[in-house]
């Protein structure tokens, strides 16, 4: 009898939640974001022991396991990825990968195409996000203190040595923070200083704008398609610190043009001419 009431109660609750999500975009958004965060925490807790068993501790090799788990999330949220240019990751030796940074959903896009032996650079605060902090620590994420320029520069100098010694690629978000406006924020130069210092190529990666299916200001979070393009590597051999600004500007222009194209918008130059 009690089991029957529990089942009826659960059915009513699910029906009520369904009605609320249909009537209220705010409820729908909150539930989907809550589910995403819960999935991240639970999957991190379950994956961490496996990483320890297979690879024995903190190593970028754990990203293979993490990637396999996270790539299932897209089916839950109805997201589809259309990817081009993966062959551009196939460079000999280390490289600095730079991409646009839009929201907390970026992790799904990152894991969709993350190459082997690639470490991400992330803010230090991510270490304190419970089981998620633990799993990204085990995955070899390189943490920097964005509030301390001196500390960040020291970390990046160590990263340059690690890239050369361990033959790893490094993934950096040059905007420095999330930006869900459909455009790019000005790039910080740290990633480009790193590439020039290590004399390794820069590989730009661009994800189309999320704004058609994800916009926190409008309580929008639905299913959608994300176009991803890995652009040809940009060589830095022979460049010096004097060339970093030009390299940064060049990457910004190329990535912005690509972002607008993938998002189905007029290129920045066309928009400027029409105005």
Average pLDDT, rounded to a whole number, is 88
What is the structural class? alpha/beta
**Major beta sheet, strand line-up:** 1-9-6-2-5-3-4
Share of β-strand residues:
5-15%
Model regions low in confidence, pLDDT < 50 over at least 5 residues: none
Distance between the termini: 70 Å
What is the count of DSSP helices, taking H or I runs of 4+ residues?
10
Q: What's the number of extended β-strand segments?
A: 9
Can you tell me the overall shape? globular
Biggest sheet statistics: 7 strands, mixed
Keywords:
275 residues; alpha/beta; single chain
Write the layout of secondary structure elements.
Blueprint: H1 2-23, H2 25-55, H3 63-70, H4 73-77, E1 79-84, E2 96-99, H5 106-113, E3 118-123, H6 131-138, E4 142-144, H7 149-166, E5 169-172, H8 190-198, E6 202-207, E7 214-215, E8 220-221, E9 224-230, H9 244-262, H10 268-274
Parallel strand pairs: 1-9, 2-5, 2-6, 3-4, 3-5
Antiparallel strand pairs: 6-9, 7-8
Write up what this structure looks like.
The chain is of the alpha/beta class and 275 residues long. It is built from ten helices and nine strands. Helix 2 packs across helix 6 and helix 7 runs parallel beside helix 8. The radius of gyration is 21 Å and the shape is globular.
Overview in brief:
The chain has helices spanning 2-23, 25-55, 63-70, 73-77, 106-113, 131-138, 149-166, 190-198, 244-262, 268-274, and strands spanning 79-84, 96-99, 118-123, 142-144, 169-172, 202-207, 214-215, 220-221, 224-230. It has 275 residues and is an alpha/beta fold. Helix 1 crosses helix 2.
């Amino acid at each position: 009898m009690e089991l029957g009431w529990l089942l009826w109660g659960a059915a009513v609750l699910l029906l009520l939640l369904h009605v609320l999500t249909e009537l209220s975009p705010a409820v729908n958004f909150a539930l989907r974001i809550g589910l995403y965060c819960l999935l991240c925490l639970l999957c991190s807790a379950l994956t961490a022991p496996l990483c320890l068993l297979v690879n024995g501790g903190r190593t970028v090799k754990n990203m293979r396991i993490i990637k396999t788990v996270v790539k299932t999330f897209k089916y839950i949220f109805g997201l589809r990825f259309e990817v081009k240019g993966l062959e551009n990751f196939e460079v000999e030796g280390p490289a600095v990968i730079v991409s646009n940074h839009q929201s907390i959903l970026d992790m799904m896009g990152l894991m969709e195409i993350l190459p082997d032996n690639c470490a991400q650079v992330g803010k230090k605060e991510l270490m304190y996000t419970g089981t998620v902090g633990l799993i990204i620590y085990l995955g070899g994420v390189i943490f920097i203190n964005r509030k301390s320029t001196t500390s960040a520069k020291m970390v990046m100098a160590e990263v340059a040595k690690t890239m050369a010694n361990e033959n790893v690629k490094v993934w950096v978000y040059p905007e420095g923070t999330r930006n869900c406006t459909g455009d790019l924020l000005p790039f910080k130069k740290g990633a480009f200083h790193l590439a020039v210092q290590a004399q390794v190529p820069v590989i730009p990666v661009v994800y189309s704008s999320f704004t058609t299916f994800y916009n926190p200001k409008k309580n929008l979070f639905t299913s959608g398609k994300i176009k991803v393009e890995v652009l040809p590597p940009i060589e830095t051999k022979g460049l010096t610190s004097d060339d970093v600004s030009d390299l940064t500007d060049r990457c910004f222009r190329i990535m912005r043009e690509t972002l607008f194209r993938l998002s189905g918008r007029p290129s920045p130059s066309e928009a400027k001419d029409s105005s």
